[in-house]
Write a structure and sequence with these properties.
Helices cover 0% and strands 51% of the residues. By secondary structure, it is mainly β. Strand 10 and strand 11 form a beta hairpin. The two termini are 21 Å apart.
Amino acid sequence: TELTIASGAITVTQSFHKVDTEADAATDNLDTINGGHTGQILYLKPADSGRDVTLTESGNILLPGSTVAFTNAADLIQLLFDGSNWLLVSTADNA
């Protein structure tokens, strides 16, 4: 299913989601991922190549750098929920 960022956050309901920017903006930051259970693996990809989603460490997402940007609808990120934070496992830049 597709989730739209609202005030920097989404709420996951399954293990795979497409993510779109708030109000179809050209760019948007995803700071917080709500939902999930300990040990859950989550796959996210952007809903549209014309709208860039950038994951940040401003909320409960932990990354090796401060951000990870998706600029193509074929890009993919894999995260693991540790009960408190979503930890980056891998990214695929498929542009």
